Amino acid sequence: MCGIVGYVGTENAVDVIISSLKKLEYRGYDSAGVTILNGDLETYKTVGKISELEKIIPAGFTGHIGIGHTRWATHGKPETRNSHPHLSSNIAVVHNGIIENYMFLKEKLMEQGYEFVSDTDTEVIAHLLHRTMKDSERCSLLDAVRHIMTEIEGSYAIAVLCTDEPDHIVLARKDSPLVIGLGDKGYFAASDVPAFLRYTRNAVYVNDKELVLISPKGVEFYNNDGQRIEKQVDIIEWNEEAAEKAGYEHFMLKEIHEQPTSIQATYAGKISELEGRVILDELKMDEDQLRNLQRVTIIACGTSWNAGCVGKYLFENLAGIHTDIETASEFRYGDPILCGQVFTLAITQSGETADTLAAIRSSRSYGCKAASITNVVGSTITRETDSVLFTRAGPEIGVAATKTFTAQLIVLYLMAIHIGTVRGRLTPETARDILVGIKQLPGQVQKILNNKDAIKKCAEHYAKVQDYFFIGRHLNYPISLEGALKLKEISYIHAEGYAAGELKHGPLALISSATPVVAIATKGHTYDKVLSNIKEVKARSAEVIAVANESDTEINKYVDRVLRIPDCHELLSPVLSSVVLQLLAYYTALARDCSIDKPRNLAKSVTVE
């Protein structure tokens, strides 16, 4: 999830672009770059934050048209050669998104004599544009961009400069955000409003498959047929601080709302519905190795550990392989029984979690194949494991993990389906049913977000309690753990998650009318058992909040409140239930006036043991 900017106007474009990029640094911070069109394309880019880019730009460097980029690495390590803008002769491009068919296009372009200097998918765009304009002498930059939109697959917001047309920038969008700013001293383009809010509050939002041409004369909008279209101008009401959060009060709430996008980005290019299979080239194990695996050991901490618990159920259910889940901080102090036929999987949002790194190093000393799931390209874990599977959640600012957790779940689903089909556990038909369900998740999550008022009212009603219990069975047990963790992290309420069947083995002693119980009671093979557990706590005077499917009318008879999720495949309900519990925690903390994005005593990445 990178940040792009563009500017045409009377101000110094270098200053405008740098200040705009700083407002987008939450979208990416591993490298940055700028290109100014002054007859030629003058480009400066480097690894690191925007401050590092400022250091290499010569004093007095000026211009009035340019593009810039701050990167969240997806294809290629954080290195200067992989930083944007990317060039092809007289063309410069910045890009936010993922080009899914870039390897196919890259091979074709190489056959035509194009040389690639980076490992990114974006460089393909620059070369495609150069080829298109070279092959047709009368092809404008706008037409070239419109043409390549039929060739590239995936998501993109792009801004393009060309020395043949030195007075304007051409932009296009599909599935990645792009907004245009209309100011008195120029025209702006960016991934998000904060980039230009200090210059103007007049904004135009670009829709999918629309193109934009920005010049000193103004801004022109086109549909993908090349026809001029009129767009509505919106007046932004936010101040700069609020705008960084896109109008949300906290980064956590913003990140909860980004989950339809992050889920989709994580599975993009990896699902073949027609064949009922997962394309997981990142998992560098051949089919014989997968068939011969004896066991999987998942190693993680905190929220990632809860995701790993879901993974245990998925690997055993879908792949038919025994799976252990280990707490990283304890793993290497025991005597693990490992060998070359055991596959170890580290899950770490940051890729820098000290305990997880130490544990995976220990496992590798036994000759185990090791893989990792992480959100950060170039992090330490990517160098410590044989395979790396990236979540595409983008930067997560809030300390309490939200979108990275559901993205981890998506990767675990994809892995389990892939291994299950290779091992003959899953038929293509069964795999297809789940994959179809996965592709429906973004829309279903959005439906929950659109109807969050009931969750907010529930949170406010119970905001003053001192204890909470969360219960669930099977796949919903780790979701109860995650729900309790979210609540205690940001609201400071004592909360515990339990396997629902364990209540009678001790926890029932703590149940009273002052202890609300959240029961994850989604439809599935444990549904009737969870209803029995609900009756147990109701008999002890507890108030029960159920997380249940929209079509479930039976649940209303047994509980005090119901928080709904859309009907879905039984195995996928944890993703939707997680979003409900994230919102419950958020609105509880909000009602208690807690520090939500930076809860006390906690840090985003635990880099010490």
Keywords:
globular, alpha/beta, 609 residues, eight-stranded antiparallel beta sheet, seven-stranded antiparallel beta sheet
What's the arrangement of secondary structure elements?
Layout: E1 3-9, H1 13-23, E2 31-38, E3 40-47, H2 50-56, E4 65-71, E5 86-88, E6 91-99, H3 102-111, H4 122-135, H5 141-148, E7 154-162, E8 169-174, E9 179-183, E10 186-190, E11 202-205, E12 210-215, E13 218-222, E14 228-229, E15 234-235, H6 240-244, H7 251-257, H8 259-267, E16 271-272, E17 277-278, H9 287-291, E18 295-300, H10 302-318, E19 323-327, H11 328-331, E20 342-347, H12 354-364, E21 369-374, H13 381-384, E22 387-390, H14 403-422, H15 428-450, H16 453-461, E23 467-472, H17 476-491, E24 494-499, E25 517-520, H18 527-538, E26 544-549, E27 561-565, H19 573-591
Parallel strand pairs: 18-19, 18-20, 20-21, 21-22, 23-24, 23-25, 25-26, 26-27
Antiparallel strand pairs: 1-4, 1-10, 2-3, 2-4, 5-6, 6-7, 7-8, 8-12, 9-10, 9-11, 11-15, 12-13, 13-14, 16-17
Helix pairs in contact: 3-4, 4-5, 8-14, 8-15, 10-14, 10-17, 14-15, 15-19, 16-19, 17-19
